[in-house]
Amino acid sequence: MKARLIATLLATSTAGLLISGSAPAQNYAPAGMTFFVTSIGPGDGGNLGGLEGADAHCQSLAAAVGAGSRTWRAYLSTDGAGGVNARDRIGQGPWVNATGVTIATNLDELHGAANAINKDTALNELGAIVNGRGDSPNMHDMLTGTNQDGTAVAGMTCANWTANGTEMTIVGHHDLVGNTQGANFWNYSHPTRGCGQQALVGTGGAGLFYCFAID
């Protein structure tokens, strides 16, 4: 059922109005893509079905545009027993977007000032620019639960991506607009008002997150 829903939404978006952006950028070639922003979220706030559910969402979106032969991982951290840092689950790079632009060649570059993530390069899997601050609706909040260096922020992961209530998480801004956190705030900007879908919308998001291919 979920796979059919995603396929339906993606078909609608490619036919006309994209869900979270404008028309696909030039040179759109998803088969070579190893990085994208999700065009849609699962729709239940920070309850992504844990890391497994978030990874499956990345995989489904990638498969729908012909990039499903790669292994996809959500850029999300968890904490507590068995916790994992986002940077430790996305491979070693390099990572390129749907138009072939390299956003980072390795983990250190990705988490440093030399990364190339911004509104023009943090495209979704459809090759479209994702709404940022100043667009309607604003969708620049990206779920991460993560510090600038790619490590987990304790207690700020929507109960390890299983909660949609009053818990909170950390989001980054894919458009690099809205605070003064520095070069890395694509992955760390501010806490949310909660983990429910409306709470995420209320802080400038839509429950979207980053996906990276590990191969």
Features:
215 residues; alpha+beta; Mannose-Binding Protein A, Chain A; six-stranded mixed sheet; two-stranded antiparallel sheet; 5 helices; 8 strands; disordered N terminus
Number of helices: 5
| Strand portion | 5-15%
CATH-derived topology:
Mannose-Binding Protein A, Chain A
What integer is the average pLDDT? 90
Say what oligomer this is.
Answer: single chain
Helix content: 10-25%
Number of extended strands: 8
The H-level CATH homologous superfamily, spelled out, is Mannose-Binding Protein A, subunit A
Question: Architecture, CATH level 2?
Answer: Roll
Give unreliable regions as ranges. 1-20
Structural class: alpha+beta
Could you explain how this protein is built, in words?
There is one protein chain. With 215 residues, this protein is an alpha+beta fold. It has one domain (29-213): Mannose-Binding Protein A, Chain A (Roll), CATH 3.10.100.10. Helices cover 20% and strands 13% of the residues. It contains 5 helices and 8 strands; from the N terminus they run αβαβββαβαββαβ. The strands form 2 sheets. Strands 1, 2, 5, 6, 7 and 8 form a 6-stranded mixed β-sheet that branches. It has a two-stranded antiparallel ribbon with strand order 3-4. β3 (95-96) and β4 form a beta hairpin. The longest helix is centred in the first third of the chain and has 15 residues, at 50-64. Residues 1-20 have low confidence and may be disordered.
